[in-house]
Fold this sequence. Notes:
The strands form two sheets. Strands 2, 4, 5, 6, 9, 10 and 11 form a seven-stranded mixed beta sheet that branches. A four-stranded antiparallel beta sheet has the order 1-3-8-7, with no helix packed on it. It is elongated and about 45 Å long. It has strands at 2-7, 10-13, 18-26, 28-39, 46-51, 57-59, 67-72, 77-82, 91-101, 106-110, 114-119. The protein is mostly beta strands. It starts with a strand and ends with a strand. It has no helices and eleven strands. Helix content is 0%, strand content 62%.
Amino acid sequence: QVQLVESGGGLVQAGGSLRLSCAASGSIISINDVGWYRQAPGKQRELVAAITSGGSTDYADSVKGRFTISRDNAKNAVYLQMNSLKPEDTAVYYCNARIKLRAGYERGYWGQGTQVTVSS
């Protein structure tokens, strides 16, 4: 059984910061490529930031310079530091990870999501 759990969401004023965490547990060997996605009401889910197993990162233009994705392989965790938050960042944030399982293969998992609300 593998679980991928996000945490760290909440309500913050515009200009504030939040740090999201995505942690994997269960019969895993490692977390490989990971993406943070978000979905606002009435909109499609979009990729916000991604990090490879080697640590290369990529960001959506809308968050460049404000968000930072990082990882702690020892903890099987990935983080999203969000600074200078704007009301348009309000969404449910999801973690998606490619996980190498002890069974010997890799598959993708989604977390349950964490709500981020930015007030103006």
